[in-house]
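Re-run with default settings, no changes from the original entry. Doing this only to confirm the output is reproducible before filing.
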Amino acid sequence: MYILAEALRRVELDTVYGLVGIPVTEAAYAMQKVGVRYVGFRFEQQAGMAAATHGYLTRKPGVLLTVSSLGFMNGLTATANATVNCYPMIQISGATDPSMVDMKMGTYEELDQLNTARPLVKLALRCTHAKDIPSAVARAYRAAVSGRPGGVYIDMTTPALAEVMDAAEAEKLFYDPVDIYSPVASNTDAVKRAADIIAAARRPAILLGKGAAYARLEDRVKKLVENYNIPYLPMSMAKGLMPDAGPLSALSCRSTIMKEADVVIVTGARLNWMLSFGRGKWNPDVKFVQLDVEPQEIDVNVPIAAPVVGDMALSLDALLAELKTRSMNTDPQWITMLQNETKDKKAKFTARLNEAAGVMPMNHWSALSVIKPVLEAHPDVILVNEGANTLDDTRDTIDMTLPRHRIDCATWAIMGMGMGSCVGAAIATGKKVVAIEGDSAFGFSGMDFATICRFRLPVTVVVFNNGGIYNNIGVNPSTDPAIEHDPAPTTLDLHARYDKMGEMFGVPGYYVTTPDELAKTLQQAIDSCAPAIINVQLAADAGKESGHIGYLNPAPLINFTV
């Protein structure tokens, strides 16, 4: 157990998130003994979400510690999510003696965890002996951060944890990994090809993904945008990489960019479902220049005219150098057109918020109309956001000005990352965090508000309660007397008092029903630098099915009230 704790400390993985039990309880104590911070959760999935968020914000693997079997499985959901979203993370799970598992002897929590994890992670390793542990930790670190970041799994068997070694012999096992992250430069010809295409563009645009935020590209992107007058469109977690309200921001012009741009520089983003797979709504003649660290991402869904594969910071350095030798051919009306569209849409959006501010009971826009000025006055607060309508409307409303200050459900659009991400963000950065949660989304992770309180983290949780997965107006269509009075599938608890969770855990809890109450309470909670929870009462009919992505639902032959 000491060898595991010491292996983590020596590669400077100084924080572990988890939930202990057989066989890893004493391992967590050993971590504390050697100076590694252990953050204990109520649910392994949330500990994993914290570890993943920690990895995203620090570029060092976040570490998750779990027990075996279902504890391992609970954590694996977060590790799989980390792999999909390219967050560096290491899951270490206690495991039964593999020789007994392989023989299916019916031993304690018997499960072949190693092979269960393999399809969902970048690398899966098993430590059968204590001597395996230092190498496994170092290799896991390297795998998690190298190339496209992601999740790594270490099967920490009970025999390895329990083995006793001579201290001098154990010391010989430790080593300092050399160049644990080795950036690889892109091909010179690829960079020149990309520069030629960009320089020839009449209507260029830059598409920024969270990979660009993870790679710390803000200074280089700023040069590309400002030196060559190229508008930029950030994806959700890339908001703030360049200011959302900047003069060249095309955040309000997504459809126009897709329809009209002739060259798009895709930087750390994927042309996936969120971008219509690069087809359909896009200009059929658009040329994509794609900067990515992963070669397998190139030509996914559409051919890429200029792939630039390699470390994105090095790629942008090379591209900026090449562009200095070329003249741009941008249509002078392109920027003017986008800026006029932005001005018009912002005026309409402001009018919408102003109108919503007087709506009672509140809807999402009513609440966001007063949250917006509070959060935008505190740009260094990290915003965690999940839900359906709550996610979509908050993303559209709150302008971000700093990179890596918005954390959400990302590529899989999953619910249940909220409280874990709050903990990971607060601990990794030391900054204040505000979570804006739909009531349904909060239900997935809400019990780990206890973890926020136990560690006295500067986190304010805002729950938008409209009493349902989308709203509280769903109608049970059954006429069967046995079930016709059951709640509809999307119905939750309109009058639930989530604020009382503050009382449960000894921190302030607030129940607000008006925009003025919400604005005052949110400001007070942020200023306190302590845990707080705010229950925002919304109208039963606030929200629509699936928020802004209802088109993904199969069309039913029967019309249901949802």
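Residues 188-332 form a domain with the Rossmann fold fold (CATH 3.40.50.1220). The first helix runs from residue 2 to 10.
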